[in-house]
Amino acid sequence: MTGTGAVGVRHEECNDVRRHGAAGARADGAISVRRDGAVATVRVGTGRRANALAIRDWRALAAVFEALGQDPSLGAVVVSGRGSATFSAGSDMREWLSARPAEIDASFAAM
Question: Can you identify the CATH homologous superfamily of domain 2-110?
Answer without folding.
Answer: 2-enoyl-CoA Hydratase; Chain A, domain 1 (3.90.226.10)
